[in-house]
Design a protein that fits this description.
Helices cover 39% and strands 13% of the residues. The chain is of the alpha+beta class. α1 packs across α2 and α7 packs antiparallel against α21.
Amino acid sequence: MVLERKIAFINLSNSSIKIKPTPLGLRKKFLGGRGINMYLLSKVYSPELDPLSPENPLIFGAGLLTGALGFGSRMNITAKSPESGHLGDSNMGGDFGAELVQAGFSHLVITGRSRKPVYLMIKNREIEIRDATSISGLDTVQTQLRIREKLGDEKIQVACIGLAGENLVRFASIRTGIKNSAGRTGMGAVMGSKNLKAVAVRGTLGITISYPKHYLKYYLRQLKGLMDSKWVQALGRYGTPLLFQYANAMGFLSIRNNQFTTIGDQGYALEAEALEPYSSGMLSCFGCPAHCRHRYSLAEGQYSGTKGEGPEYASIGSMGTKLGNLDLENIIYATELCNRYGIDTISTGSYIAWAMELYQRRILDKKQTGMSLDWGDGESILQLLHQIAQRKGFGNILAEGPFANEKFGKGSEDYLLSIKNFPIEMTDERLPKSFALGMATSTRGACHMRSRPSIDVLGLPEEVLKKIYGGPVSSHFSSYSGKGRMVWWHELLNAVSDSLGFCRFLTVFSSPRAPGYKEFVNFISLSTGIKFTPKELQTIGERIYTLERMMLVKDGMSRKDDTLPRRYFDEPIPEGPAKGEVISREEFDGMLKEYYRLHGWNENGVPKKETLKRLGIDAKG
């Protein structure tokens, strides 16, 4: 039963392991996954906490419903970020979370630092710390295969780091399976700083459902509604690359570090249909009905023999258009290199794009970089990926992420498009104003997964939007009106879905008919017996997001940090369907004002005392 799942506190410095029950009161306030992770992190979070120190906790958290038959089986990995220096958190799919639950655990809190490389072996409520010397230096796929081979069990699920994590690349990822990544904010570097190569899990305890017959009946009804939707049908055929076509056609892609926002008809080379010759089928995460990822292979050409899963829309944008690269096979290979080394494709693309624009503007030259950094040069991109992961040459500087600015000198900071010391992604938000506000206010820095209201692109009737969001919202994609409300609403919903283990793509993130609070309430009740109202769930989302905000407040962040790169305010989009679009500072401030009011934060973006009291959050941490 979900209430029997434990929290394990593991100190690698002294090899101590303490296993404790998860209090019911904690479940009722934070659910699980991201929510409980944030509660645990907040207890030790401070501006003085060094992200790469033994004291920084690395927290694995499975969602309340992770492992149950449903709409995804996701988990969050959380710590203070070595990439931004602030709040770090990343969401990961695949089978690992479900296996952790079946082993009897919901959360792992890992502190300390081992003297030698180790991995954790978790099986049915028991945890061992084992020597990982023989698997040090292996890539993320080899590591998983070697552990399964060594332990003689092909069903073991492994979350691990590659060479980038071992070398403390600040944007290193934690990976499981062929392509699942806890990518952004550098959780792999935290894992590497602890000399922890992997966490292996095998569980056979099963998952108990409180009302199995009623749960199955309700699940099948919800499943039919989703599978009949055009969104899920398209996702099952094309995967997330289907989003590339829309972003290119509407003009909110990042082209050459956001100097442009569309590649027009050239986009055909990178759209979802272009992947079909390489695809041999579609796959899903554990328990998820939407098979949204390609399994691919490159049978011939320069990268012959490359096999894997993906690439996702985010990787196509980050390894492709953001770098001026339109070679799909090069993009696929570059993505696989990132996966094998264990580095986040989004952040990696952003830092390479930064360097390429500095090279374009002659702030950097070949003497400093050791190679030409021309837009679209696929071979230079691959060379940099090797150098970053191995911390060699110019790549050793880029491996420092935003902190590489110290080496690049004055004037370079304007070309790293970042928010809260964290680089923006594969899109440009000057056209979609709700997207812009969501990036600016995200608690982990520039991030679309915290709040992006993708349904804003659908142009839904305003009466429908009002029904969803509880207040007036403009149906125009480029309008500022009501977008503060829209972003606030999605922040709370996403905090809840992450805490349940729901896949973002199967919520109101992308379809107004997808599951939301009402459906979440029923899934929770039927599977766990815990009863909530939709309003209570929304309050839990508010509690989680405000707790995250309070950690940023501890770091000295406020309204001044809820902003966008200078380019967004000062440089209108030069061409394409979004030509002339730019963010108005006055209108942006208006969105912020509405957003703060709905959150119960003051005009400086700091949660009010009465808000903290209502949510049961200790202002002192």
